[in-house]
What we know:
By secondary structure, the protein is an alpha/beta fold. It has a domain at 1-97 and 613-664: Rossmann fold. The chain contains 16 helices and 15 strands. The strands form four sheets. The chain has a five-stranded antiparallel sheet, covered by helices on one side. A five-stranded parallel sheet has the order 7-13-14-3-15, with helices on both faces. A three-stranded antiparallel sheet has the order 10-11-12. Strand 5 and strand 6 form a beta hairpin. Helix 7 runs antiparallel to helix 11 (357-447). The longest helix has 91 residues, at 357-447. It is elongated, with a radius of gyration of 43 Å. Belongs to the Sph1/Sph2 family. Residues 378-520 form a coiled coil.
Amino acid sequence: MTTSQTVSDAAQFHVRNIGGIDETSVVIEPGVTVLTGENATNRTSFLQAVMAAMGSNAATLKADADEGIVELTLDETEYQRTVSQTDDTVIFDGNTYLDDPDIAERFAFLLEGNNARRAVSRSADLREIIMEPVDIEEIKRKISSLESQRSEIDEKISDIESKKQGLPELEKQKKNIESKISKKREELSKKETEIDESSRNISDSQEKEAELESKLDELRSTRSDLDSIRQQIETQRESIESLQAEHEENKTALSELSSTPAAKLTRLEQQIDSLRDDRQALNAEISQLQNLIQYNEDQLEDGEYNVIGRISDDVNSKTDTEESSSGADAITDRLLADENTGSETVTCWTCGSAVDREQIEATVDQLKSVRADRVQSLNDVKSDLDSLKSEKREIESEQTRRSDLESTINRITQEIDQRKKQLETLKEQRKDLTATIETLETEVDELESESFEDILSLHREANEVEFEINRLESDHQSVSNKIESIEAAIDRIDTLESERKTIVNQLEDERTKIDQIEHEAVEQFNAHMESILDILAYENLDRIWIERTQNKVRSGRQKVEQTVFELHVIRTTASGTAYEDTVEHLSESEREVTGLIFALAGYLVHDLHETVPFMLLDSLEAIDSNRIAALISYFSEYVEYLVVALLPEDAQSINKEYDRITDI
């Protein structure tokens, strides 16, 4: 079970011109803070100010103000958020605690209209609400990257295994070369013995013999150098040909890439930022519209109605087009148009006007229609945002590939130029050595005579044997290097296998991440729901739990399996018989508690306790005061700062040790 971190710093708020607040300063200590007061005492306005400091756009500007400010000091860091209005546009600015408040608005700021909190009572898709913050595309990208890494390691291991199979043949070649070298050395020893015996028979020409020996040694050494140069020339030619082939392959790959202007990527980023702002604005607007609809419906039930000012203020402040603004005026006009009819009327407690109930109900229906339009717009924005993000990732990937190819082409070009220069140098050396050999051969011919013919022949044969030995030793070194390289690669197999295992485990984690989140969400809800029902002790309500099932749904022409969260309610009769009930039969208090526990499950499964210090609660009137006290105590175990807005009668049973704020 995850609990909140213990902190010691108080959160200091200074708020001006937000909601109904003129100006106030409030200190929130770690733990539970209860805002107590009657309706219209700015409790909800202060909660909206906390949300604004966190990064939400749900706060409203005071009707008679041009600018509102929320200042937060927390952990020795200061944050400031400003709210201003130009024409029909509300502008938020400043630095906030959260870079992206979206997930906090879903599962931490649990005001009355919160979607997660209302999911149960609205019979919403519980799985969709829990999984909506999960970036599926990012998970797919990680899976693709890990699969590429695994394939690369598999290729390395396969290459090593292939070379390993050729190791016995290389060992055989090495032994064969060693045998030939041994035989050639024996042959050379015999030649040198014959030369020594022949040299002893030539006593009168030792000076010439010494000179001849010197020339022959020089000739042998020069020929060996020439052979080495020729091998180096051949190696350089092969390297250049290989590099040129690689150069052409990379140029072909580069030419096949499409060219995306930088301006397009900038434009995509701007569009993504704009859509994110639209998404936040629409979320705030939908939430406020829902609050307005709920408030008006509650007033209709009570028989008193404060709709005139609310509709005019809220609808005009929550829509950013002339059509919405004029629509709000038209709605207000219709509410005042028919005061003297015989229909049932409702009296506005702020201005005393009598308004036809049917007109009010029609107005509420129109507000619901506006909300539905905003929800559709929000879905469209989310779809466009996902599409633009995918396009941006493709462009960035292609740009990275282009940059890598251009870098590789430049490197290969430089290496080709360098090797060509080395090749020209080697050719010059070969030319010089060839000329030297010709000169030495001429000098040796001049020193030769009939008396030296045999010994000269022996020297030539000895030189040839030495040359063959050098060649065999070079081959031996080459084979030995290959063997050492393969053995070193074989030693790396264990490391590669370990790396592959790690990547496979990461792949498994990524592929099952969605399943893990779904499973953990269900486990969190079921565990906390069981605990809270034990604490609250509702009559004949035994259990409320979520079952995770797979249903087949149609996707295009095919049917695919889709995970569904099914909510079950178990009750018992007076005789103790258990039976399954429906969500519709839950009392308002039971539905409210179930929705709050579902929001808590989302808060925990997305680890908000690690990043969002505040959880906000209001509008708990449907729950009796004793159960409210127990619920707050339960939630406080998982949150650093729990701020709850309550009516005075609902706050009576709250723990006296909790901080209370009565004046905002």
